[in-house]
């Protein structure tokens, strides 16, 4: 196959510009702002205590503040629903009990939830 000179020059220019374009498209450092961890149970309980220990370790390793929000009600569905409706940017987390019976209600796709999101047990 014969490559015309004009196409060769375009290809060479594209290859030369590739390293410059890839440097400008680098990802941002995560996290660049504070992280919110929603605990869908009352403050002072075992899940809240574990979340606070986890948040302290995350703060030490990531170098950002981790804010704990206790959003109680409906067996954890309200707090988990708040996380499901949050922006999918990785700055809003949920800490639930590792109980498969407690994950049934909030994981179901409901009409008021935007799109189909997957919530994995913690």
Kindly list the characteristics that best describe this protein.
122 residues, alpha/beta, D-Maltodextrin-Binding Protein, domain 2, three-stranded parallel sheet, 4 helices, 41% helix, 11% strand
Summarize the topology.
Blueprint: H1 5-24, E1 35-39, H2 46-62, E2 66-70, H3 77-85, E3 92-94, H4 104-107
Parallel strand pairs: 1-2, 1-3
Short description:
The protein is an alpha/beta fold and 122 residues long. The protein has helices spanning 5-24, 46-62, 77-85, 104-107, and strands spanning 35-39, 66-70, 92-94. The radius of gyration is 23 Å and the shape is elongated.
Q: What does the average pLDDT come to?
A: 77
Widest beta sheet: strand line-up: 2-1-3
Order of helices and strands: HEHEHEH
CATH class of the domain at 35-107: Alpha Beta
Low-confidence stretches: none
Question: Rough shape?
Answer: elongated
State the helical fraction: 40-55%
